[in-house]
Write a structure and sequence with these properties.
OB fold (Dihydrolipoamide Acetyltransferase, E2P), 358 residues, alpha+beta, Aminopeptidase, 13-stranded mixed beta sheet
Length: 358
């Protein structure tokens, strides 16, 4: 019988050790397990409580064959924001887990009651804005219970997070994203790199997010306050499912995956972007009918007339004017308005002092 030389046996043994060291373990969310190189689907159950019947949170795990970062993409935080939901469906089908390093978690519809109810801003049942109740409560309202599950099942497990939004069904919005800058400098820089990798050329420098992890309010900020790079993007408007807005999200995700070395292919990061500093959501002071006089993307001077509100007889009861010179990032494009709700969002170019130093 021929025997293998000791050197050959040693090389084989070391090769097996190397393969085992580089092996990717299985990944589990909510009792659903994905093996390396597979894509699996699951649903988190939000149990009924009180007068509500509970809901589900549909998700996918795209678990790469090779080790790498874990990133979470969330769509449908607001129920009538459709391009992110459709983009994640496409991405689930197009990303090959066998060619992926790391793991992608996709929350397909975070707020199912609002999605099925075609509701803007608020969750049917508790009339709360899901993106203002994070990190949520396990024994709270339906919105708070959804937030609690997303926090415990996805944010805790992820290393990076991108909350995918667009203009709600009443908002005429130009694309932009938020870069949170009131965090540790190293984290701020990581988010900057994510933002430029996503490739949207209008970036808001957001320094107003809460810093308390127990009262983070926003989904993206819940990750930030836990030391994880995260951002919110806006692509789409007015309840439309237009191809341009969907493809913009697909390109952005591809750029981020390339940046994180999870895939070899994808667009290169932006080299330059319009950085926006001072910004303000302009809210209505009356309930009535809104007549916008500007469009998304318009540059306006301080004091410029943005729109008017009339009562239900048609009498003018409020003029909406720009509080400072800047760009209209979104303006409400449907007539109904309720006191306290948004009418427009304006932002001004960032000054050198506002831009974080690298």
């Amino acid at each position: 019988m021929r025997t293998r030389p000791m050197g050959t046996l040693f090389a084989i043994l070391m090769g097996l050790v190397s393969v085992r060291a580089n092996a990717q373990p299985a990944f589990t969310v909510g009792g659903v397990t994905a093996q390396p190189g597979t894509t699996v689907y699951g649903e988190l159950q939000v149990p009924a409580r009180g007068s509500d019947s509970g809901t589900i949170i549909p998700f996918s795990i795209v678990h790469g064959a090779k080790p790498g970062p874990v990133i979470t993409f969330v769509a449908g935080t607001h129920g009538a924001e459709y391009p992110p939901i459709l983009a994640l469906q496409r991405l689930r089908a197009s990303i090959d887990p066998k060619e992926l390093s790391g793991t992608i978690l996709m929350v397909h519809v975070a707020n199912m009651p609002a999605f099925l109810g075609r509701a803007i801003y608020y969750t049917p049942g508790d009339h709360q804005n899901l993106n203002r109740v994070f990190p949520g409560k396990a024994d709270g309202t339906i919105s708070e219970r959804i937030a609690d599950l997303i926090t415990r099942e996805f944010i805790v497990r992820t290393q990076y997070l991108i909350d995918l939004h667009c203009g709600d069904a009443n908002e005429s919005l130009r694309p932009y994203l938020y870069w949170t800058i009131n965090a540790a400098p190293a984290l701020v820089e990581q988010v900057r790199q994510l933002a430029f990798a996503f490739g949207m050329d209008h970036i808001i420098l957001d320094k107003g997010r809460p810093t308390d992890p127990a009262a983070s309010l926003y989904l993206e900020n819940t990750a930030i306050t836990r030391g994880k790079p995260a951002m919110t993007i806006e692509s789409g408007a007015m309840g439309q499912s237009d191809e341009e807005s969907i493809q913009r999200i697909e390109r952005g995700v591809a750029g981020v995956l390339k940046h994180l070395k999870m895939r070899a292919t994808g667009p290169d990061p932006l080299q330059h972007a319009v950085l926006l500093g001072r910004n303000l959501v302009i809210n209505s002071q009356h309930t009535g009918i809104f007549y916008p006089l500007v469009e998304r993307g318009h540059m306006v001077a301080e004091g410029a007339l943005i729109g008017r509100i009339t009562d239900f007889q048609g009498r003018a009861i409020e003029e909406i004017r720009a509080p400072f010179a800047g760009e209209i990032l979104y303006v409400v494009g449907t007539p109904p308005t309720t006191k306290g709700e948004p009418l427009a969002f304006i932002a001004a170019p960032a000054t050198a002092e506002e831009i974080p130093k690298r």
